[in-house]
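Researcher: I'd like a candidate sequence for this fold, 121 residues long. If you have to choose between options at a position, lean toward the conservative one.
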């Protein structure tokens, strides 16, 4: 009997680990309040690089989830940053941060359970 792993299995395990790394890097950037923004950028670059390889797997939805979280979060941080001139932007920054943390937790828990994510924002 041949007990060597099949290439599909190796690829799946590799994508699983890379998806966990992407979540971890993104979370590191958020937890450090932007001091390690480079970690979040690295997570998104990794997600973009591996997205085509993950096509057709549960990891594709997770990588898309991270990419969408990044871009929507960046948009709302920019809008909130402008609104800080009117002193109401701080509320937007707070809400955006909570939203990003929620999406990271929801996505990472789904990944740990082996579930795919919907494409909701």
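Model: Candidate sequence:
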């Amino acid at each position: 009997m041949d007990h060597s792993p099949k290439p599909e299995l190796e690829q799946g395990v590799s994508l699983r680990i890379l998806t966990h790394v992407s979540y971890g890097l993104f979370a590191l950037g958020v937890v450090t309040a932007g001091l390690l923004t480079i970690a979040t950028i690295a997570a998104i670059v990794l997600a973009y690089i591996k997205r085509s390889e993950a096509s057709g797997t549960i990891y594709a939805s997770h990588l898309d989830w991270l990419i969408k979280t990044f871009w929507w979060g960046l948009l709302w941080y920019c809008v909130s940053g402008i609104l800080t001139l009117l002193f109401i932007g701080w509320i937007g920054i707070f809400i955006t941060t909570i939203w990003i943390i929620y999406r990271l937790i929801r996505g990472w828990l789904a990944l740990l359970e082996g579930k795919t994510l919907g494409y909701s924002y």
